[in-house]
Specification:
With 269 residues, the protein is of the alpha/beta class. The protein has 10 helices and 10 strands. The chain has an 8-stranded mixed beta sheet with strand order 5-4-3-6-7-9-8-10, with helices on both faces. The protein is globular. Bound molecules: S-adenosylmethionine (SAM). The site of S-adenosylmethionine (SAM) has 19 residues, from helix 6 and strand 4.
Length: 269
């Protein structure tokens, strides 16, 4: 482990301590909406769908097929496309949503019932499978779910997972900025899980906040990933469009609802 990695790790431990110190337990939350989320939705409950999706993860973890990936990670700037090679097993370990977080998103969606949903960052399709399972259970076929992935090979691979479970997802192979520049739709829920830089996160937020229906929400992954993600999250939580922001450490969720007083919670659940 080099010096920069050790410094980042130390920063994350310090941030976690600050988060934990200032976070509220359910006993100190007076908003009924947030209290219900904290008591009924956030606590971990394994789901039947989760068990099925996790069987695929086990398979992928032993899959050593090498694939060529256009790297759209932090630092990507539309001009340079770096090519990297990784096995399915390596991608599953490093980038795919873990079961606990996948099931949390699944429960959030089942509780909030968005009908039109957008995901930025399909990768192998693990979060997409959790999201689509929840949408299918609530709305049957009467929902729209779009998931974007820049890397062609990952986009192709993600079809296997969603087809395996008969899930309806519109998987689109496109850089996020290209899709957002042409966007003419609105959504009830959005999950932003790619390009963890300050500039990109702020850019996506300012574009997407105008495409969230009243009462809708945006989930940001990894808001304590690094200093720049935390800076982006702090700015987003303060934005005039945001009425309620929930800092769950792993995720940040903002709600956009007209005529509502502004509130912010750090929640340890
Ligand atoms: C952390 S992974 C997503 C994980 C996935 N949501 C899950 O939970 O299983 C982020 C993905 O976003 C894609 N990505 C990152 N920046 C992008 C960009 N600017 N345009 C398109 N795709 C991008 C990456 O290729 C990567 O597959």
């Amino acid at each position: 482990m080099n010096f920069l990695k050790i410094r980042l790790l130390a920063w994350r431990i310090y941030q976690f301590f600050i988060f934990w110190w200032f976070s509220k337990s359910k006993w100190r939350i007076h908003s009924p909406f947030v209290y219900e989320l904290v008591t009924k939705v956030f606590p971990h409950i394994p789901s039947i769908n989760g068990q099925e999706i996790e069987k695929v993860r086990k398979e992928y973890l032993t899959n050593h097929q090498l694939i060529e990936i256009h790297d759209f990670g932090a630092g990507f700037n539309n001009q340079k496309k770096k090519i990297i090679y990784k096995t399915i097993s390596q991608i599953t370990k490093s980038s795919a949503r873990k079961q606990k977080e996948g099931e949390l998103i699944y429960r959030i969606i089942k509780h909030l019932k968005p009908q039109k949903f957008l995901e930025l960052g399909t990768n192998l399709g693990f979060s997409a499978a959790y999201i689509a399972s929840a949408l299918k259970e609530i709305h049957n076929h009467n929902y729209q779910f779009i998931s974007l992935e820049g890397s062609e090979s990952l986009h192709q691979y993600s079809k296997l997972l969603t087809q395996n479970f008969n899930l309806e997802v519109e998987l689109i192979n496109i850089p996020f900025d290209d899709y957002l520049s042409e966007l003419n739709k609105t959504f009830d829920g959005i999950f932003i899980d790619g390009n963890h830089t300050y500039e990109a996160t702020i850019r996506y937020f300012h574009k997407l906040k105008n495409h969230v229906n009243d009462g809708g929400f945006i989930i940001f992954d990894d808001i304590y990933w690094n200093h720049s993600m935390k800076k982006a999250w702090n700015e987003i939580a303060k934005d005039g469009y945001v009425t309620l922001s929930l800092d769950l450490y792993d995720f940040g969720i903002v709600f956009i609802k007209k005529n509502q007083a502004k509130e912010h919670f750090k929640i340890w659940y």
